[in-house]
Design brief:
6-stranded parallel beta sheet; 17 helices; 16 strands; 41% helix; 15% strand; binds nicotinamide-adenine-dinucleotide; binds uridine-5'-diphosphate-glucuronic acid
Length: 484
């Protein structure tokens, strides 16, 4: 058998089909199917389609409404640059469909990009990843495919060794087909998804070390090689790839919890956390990124993946490891709580019936995603104290805010919450403004105008250290940042 690593892939631009050829194993790639049209499936496949015009990419989902949105002028995901890419390839070589079985049958490669939330029931509830959607995909693939070769790619973030279960489900339920299961985790961040996809730090592909496995890995490499240089494409064994995704998120979250812990120490010592972060980050061994103190990290993944890492460590009999990573989550929970408390204490220990303007509800700027947003927790704490919240976010719809806060309308009124379309309206007659997302437009607000229309003393709580606190104080605000 020849060494597969030494094969040169034919990447001639004019080829209609892409062949990764070995004497014994080859995959002809004409069709890709992606199951899951979410924040990852949609943008990732749009970029793959754009960079591989000869490959037909179909993104499928059980959620018909989401598919209809992907086929409309208003995409379900807000990402800078996404609209242009989707419009340039949609209905050419990128398709969004609810015909899941048809797309699976046609595909040479099937990406599984479904949600893997934290389990809410049974063993591991509140910590383990819920793999029911991933398993359902494997069962569906097995029930539809009964011949030929297909590559199944785990795009979702999953616990280490999930490929083992997928392989078992496929093997037990499909009669004549041959499957290779690979791991190709996604590292994009929301708000910068297109830039991250077009210029990734690395692409990670894990597979079996058998000749068949290596050929499958090289097939996926050939797709990314259309725009990512080979030295940025890492190939590993399956388990390293699966685990690296969880570890990468854990390390990023750990940096935020580290700087947030220091923000509390700064407040006690008159040090300034942004200055400390700058000084510490200038050490090239540490680096400047992900050292921005905040109201706490949010998003659909950091907490979920940390919880999963903690659960896995316990599962493998490593309680010290579990405890170490659990602390990153605890520090984040404490930071969110601490911020709500700070607002309440500063407003003379009562926010009862006081109007508070909440500027920003998304978990970070440039996204409409509110999953696990720190704003949810802080708003809930303020509502518990019977504050009146007026919430403004440039990209988050009112309905989404209400759902995230778990509120129900009471005869057309929402107890304690109004969602408005204008930051000045949010702050009118308010006692305080709390900035919970770092939207750029908040920097350009006319704070004198806001101040003039607020109850005095007027407070600003800048939970993102976005604003010039001294300037706000000159206007007359009682202004607080994080870690200063
Ligand atoms: P999402 O909830 O936005 O999308 C998942 C989609 O899968 C949904 O539209 C859902 O209807 C669909 N789905 C679920 N089960 C299905 C089934 N059996 N058949 C067809 N469709 C099905 O989730 P997401 O944010 O895109 O995340 C997907 C995965 O990628 C998760 O594992 C997540 O951890 C990981 N990830 C997310 C991000 C991110 O920024 N959101 C980044 C990297 C990795
Ligand atoms: C994160 C990772 O950055 C991605 O690499 C990964 O693919 C993704 O999770 C995932 O697996 O889902 P994302 O959650 O979209 O991406 O956004 P981040 O930029 O990482 O921000 C996460 C949270 O941390 C946000 O609430 C953000 O405001 C906060 N954050 C980030 C800080 O508080 N301080 C920082 O310095 C950086």
């Amino acid at each position: 058998m020849r060494d597969l690593d030494s094969f040169e892939q034919n990447s001639h631009q004019d080829l209609k089909f892409l062949f990764v050829v070995d004497i014994n194993y080859f995959y002809k790639i004409m069709n890709i199917c992606c199951i899951g049209a979410g924040y990852v499936g949609g943008p990732t496949m749009a970029v793959i389609a754009k960079k591989n015009p000869s490959i037909e990419v179909t993104v499928v989902d059980i959620n018909a409404e989401r598919i209809a949105q992907w086929n409309s002028d208003v995409l379900p995901v807000f990402e800078p640059g996404l609209d242009e890419i989707v419009k340039s390839v949609r209905d050419k070589n990128l398709f969004f469909s609810t015909k899941i079985d048809e797309a699976i049958l046609k595909a040479d490669i099937i990406f599984v990009s479904v949600n893997t939330p934290t389990k809410t029931y049974g063993v591991g509830a509140g910590r383990a990843a819920d793999l029911k959607f991933v398993e359902l995909c494997a069962r569906r693939i097995a029930s539809v495919v009964d011949q030929g070769k297909k590559i199944i790619v785990e795009k979702s973030t999953i616990p280490v060794r999930t490929a083992e279960s997928i392989k078992a489900v496929l093997a037990a339920n499909s009669s004549g087909a041959e499957f290779q299961v690979l791991s190709n985790p996604e590292f994009l961040a929301e708000g910068t998804a297109i830039a991250d996809l077009e210029n990734p730090d690395r692409i990670l592909i894990g597979g079996d070390t058998t000749p068949e496995g290596k050929a499958a890995v090289e097939t996926i490499v050939s797709i990314y090689e259309k725009w990512v240089s080979r030295d940025r494409i890492l190939t590993t064994n399956l388990w390293s790839s699966e685990l690296s995704k969880l570890v990468a998120n854990a390390f990023l979250a750990q940096r935020i919890s580290s700087i947030n812990s220091i923000s509390a120490l700064c407040e006690a010592t008159e040090a300034e956390v942004d200055e400390v972060a700058l000084a510490v980050g200038r050490d090239s061994r540490i680096g400047p990124k992900f050292l921005k103190a905040s109201v706490g990290f949010g998003g659909s993944c950091f907490q979920k993946d940390l919880l999963n890492l903690v659960y896995l460590s316990e599962h493998f009999g490593l309680p010290e490891v579990a405890e170490y990573w659990d602390q990153v989550i605890k520090m984040n929970d404490w930071q969110k709580k601490r911020y709500g408390q700070k607002i309440i204490q500063s407003l003379f220990n009562t926010v009862f019936d006081k109007k508070i303007a909440i500027l920003g509800f998304a978990f970070k700027k440039d996204t409409n995603d509110t999953r696990e947003s720190a704003a949810i927790y802080i708003c809930k704490d303020l509502l518990e104290e019977q504050a009146q919240l007026s919430i403004y976010d440039p990209k988050v719809e009112g309905e989404q805010v209400i759902e995230a806060l778990g509120l129900q309308e009471d005869e057309g009124n929402l107890l304690g919450v109004s969602v408005v379309n204008d930051p000045y309206e949010a702050a009118k007659d308010a006692h305080a403004i709390a900035i919970l997302t770092e939207w750029d437009e908040f920097k350009a607000l006319d704070f004198q105008r806001l101040y003039d229309n607020m109850v005095k003393p007027a407070f600003v709580f800048d939970g993102r250290n976005l604003l010039d606190i001294n300037r706000l104080r000159k206007i007359g605000f009682e202004a607080y940042g994080i870690g200063k």
